[in-house]
Structure formats: C-alpha cells, structure tokens
Amino acid sequence: MGSLFDFMLPELKSPLTGASTDALMGFIHLVSFIILAGVTIAMIYFAIKYKRKSDDDETPLITHNNTLELTWSVIPLILVFIVFGWGYSGWLNLQAVPDNAYEIQVSAYKWGWTFSYENGAQVGNEVHVPAGRPVKLVMKSQDVLHSFFVPDYRIKQDVLPNRYTYVWFQAEETGESQVFCTEYCGTSHSDMLAKVIVHSQDDFDNWLASQSTGGGETPVERGESLLTLQGCITCHSVDGSEKIGPSFQGLWGSERNFENASSLTADENYIRESILDPGAKIVQGYQNQMVSYEGRLSDDDISDIIEYLKTLD
Prior knowledge:
The chain is an alpha+beta fold. 35% of the residues lie in helices and 19% in strands. The chain contains 7 helices and 12 strands. The chain has helices spanning 15-49, 66-95, 201-210, 219-229, 232-235, 268-276, 299-309, and strands spanning 102-109, 112-116, 122-124, 126-130, 135-141, 146-150, 155-159, 165-169, 175-181, 194-199, 255-256, 264-265. The protein is elongated.
C-alpha cells in the first residue's frame, strides 16, 4: 500500500522509524478515497433515481432505518480504532530507543542548533551520524519552544526549555537530509535550518576524530567558530549584508547610535554588554529581539569572539 502513495512523500531514509507512519498514511488516504468515491456515486445515483418526474410526484415519508444507522456509526468507529491503534503502536516504537543507539546532545536556540558529541566536539547546524546505526538525539532549548523535524526520517519532536526530550532514527544510506524547526519561535523561525549528514561508519569515526575541541585553535579562529556554533551569524552578517541584526563588519571601533542610550564607540565593554545584556543598548533602526547569552558563553568565549570581531574591517 505504501508504494501507491510514495509520490506524496519525500524519500523514506529511516524505515525503522518511518515505515509505520507511511503505511498508516497510505491506509488513511485509501479509506478516504473509497468513502469519497462511494458517497459521490451514491449522490449521483440518488439524484437520477429520485428525480421528480412530474408535478404530481410526492416524496414519501421516511422515518428511519436501524440497519443503515448502525452501519454508518459502527464502520467509522472501527476505522477510528484502527487508526488509533496503528498510530499508538508507531508512537511506542519512537519511544523505545535501541540499546546500541549513538547519543548526541542537541541544543536549540533562536535561531539555530548546536550538536555536541561524547568526545567534546561541537557542530553548529549540522549533525553528523553513522549509517546503519540507531542515533538518539537528547534535546533541550536555551530559550523558547522549538521543534526538531526531519521529513526524510518521519520524526518530529518538540524541544522545550528546562526539560529534556529525545527522538531516535536510523539512516540506512549515506547522504544529507534537511532539518526544520516546526514551532514558530520568532522572526527568523524559517531560517532555523540544519542538515543531517550521514557517513559510513569508518568515515564517521574519521570525521569525529578530526573534530577539534578548541584547544588547538587561535583565539580568532575560535571566535569565528563560536559565532557559527552559537548561531550569531543567523542574525548578524560578517560581510555588511542586511539581516535582522546589525552587521559585524566594521563594528569594532565604530561609533554606535542607540534607540535607548547615548552614542559610544564600540569596544570590549560594549561588545561584552551586548552579548550578556542585549537590551541595554538597542542600535538605531533595529528591534530588541536578541536573547542573552549569559550562562551560555564563558569569559574566554567572549574574549575570543571580540578578537575575531576586531578582524572584520
């Protein structure tokens, strides 16, 4: 049944988590089509059969038909129970994470994703996984409600502040899949995208081993990595292009004018305050939309970011 409706769905890349969903969707569509066809044919038949043939025709008084009433009550009830049982079975499957699942920590924020691995590696807006092995994503939100959705795997899970949620999948082949946030979370909600990149097991092991945890990078290089990792470049460009926040290009040493404060020259203290208390000084022409990074960035992180911003002339 599923193949009949494959044209309506993206390619299924995680049969263990998505096959039941596709089969249920196919069943619902097939039953809906049969009901639609039956009702349409019945309407046409009755319209022709009982068409008034003369002005003397009178509609007979019809009270009820017990058999017919029971039929159109019991059959939909049975269908509802089938859909509920089928859907509940699929939901239980998504809750039962295999014991050998590879675990990745996921942090959501406005407007991006950070994926952390057991060896300390962190990647922004890309989650790298091995093919042929279950992957468990343990997720939390740094600010508001988000939702992790991968159409190719038929998985969707809300990501909540102050609480952990999880979801799992198993990609069978190498390749890439798109991740969306499916809970409205602000002005750049539609830009909150990520990629699932599936490697062979050997390639994944090599990729993971190659990831630096930051110890070998210069402060400028680490500052650049942090801007991507923390999602800063989602709202602020580094090339002067317009986004919902001021561009980082030319920020250092420039004169800044504000909606709610006196103007000043951008220095270390201003940048630090903007990161930890972004509402203190709102740049003219922009709105107060940025969330505080207090608790998310250490003093060393902020210092490295400042060093990188100094290079963006």
